[in-house]
Amino acid sequence: STTISYDLPIDSKVTLKVFDVLGREVATLVDGFARAGYHQATLNATNLASGLYFYRIQAGSFMSVKKMVLVK
User: Model-level pTM?
Assistant: First the structure.
């Protein structure tokens, strides 16, 4: 498993999803309203293969995509 941390400056709806290299959604970690402040989401990767994955976080008008490497 791995933990993804994020900090919200204001209360907003947050969506945090994980995708494989082909763009298929493999997990939804967060999908709902969150208060301003520091948050963490945990990805349980026991059913995922080793490889490159991307996670996308959307909060209000902000969106960011980061990559991560899963090594088992």
Answer: 0.90
